[in-house]
Design a protein that fits this description.
The chain is mainly alpha-helical. The chain contains nine helices and five strands. It has one domain: Intergrase catalytic core (hpI Integrase, Chain A). The longest helix has 14 residues.
């Protein structure tokens, strides 16, 4: 006698699809990013924190890429940043805009008085080089200070960069290279869900 086959459980299938559809938003809107950036300037280490947040967002940096940034990656004469990507991603040279240069100079003036100023890293904590844990804590604290309703984590700044570029109508391949993605599938999520795609749909 053949053994009875167990009925297929639809509960797990439904639960799986719901978990995909119900994923929390993992980026900040332009308005939220503005509030977040302003809150970053208000802390005890406002010059450093605001510069870190601005560069992480503007260049789509992972935490390791941000805290590991070295002084020799800054090319002041040409106003460029060498973005040394991690996780096998494509490293590229990015231009630095005026607000980034001003934020960096403000922090570097403070950094000149830091006990660990001899270290090669751009950003320093009170105990030496910044760490992933330190920046994770910092971003969450800034999010609360900004009055944002969601819990903010560092990788949201990288996602926010991707969505912001997609909403500006930038080409998918360009965004891919800018963020250092080896696989374009990691970039498509930004261009497919960008609000700009749906503007004027009912006009």
């Amino acid at each position: 006698m053949a053994a009875k086959r167990s009925p297929v459980s639809t509960h797990r299938l439904v639960k799986s699809s719901e978990s995909v559809d119900a994923r929390p938003r993992d980026d900040l809107t332009e308005r939220e990013m503005d509030l977040f950036s302003k809150a970053a300037k208000q802390g005890r280490h406002g010059a450093r924190d605001s510069a870190m947040v601005l560069l992480a967002y503007r260049h789509g940096l992972r935490v390791s890429e941000l805290v590991g940034m070295r002084l020799d990656q800054l090319d002041w004469p040409t106003a460029h940043l060498w973005v040394a990507r991690r996780k096998g991603s494509l490293s590229t040279q990015h231009p630095l805009d005026g607000d980034e240069l001003r934020a960096l100079r403000a922090w570097l003036r403070v950094r000149e008085r830091h006990p660990s100023r001899h270290l090669p890293y751009v950003f320093l904590s009170e105990r030496g080089p910044c760490t992933r844990q330190m920046f994770n804590y910092l971003v969450a604290a800034i999010g609360r200070r900004a009055g944002l309703l969601m819990h903010v984590h560092p990788h949201m700044l990288r996602h926010s960069c991707g969505y912001a570029l997609a909403n500006k109508g930038r080409d998918t391949r360009l965004i891919q290279d800018y963020l250092g993605h080896r696989n374009v599938q990691h970039t498509v999520r930004y261009t497919r869900t960008a609000a700009a795609r749906f503007e004027g749909l009912w006009r």
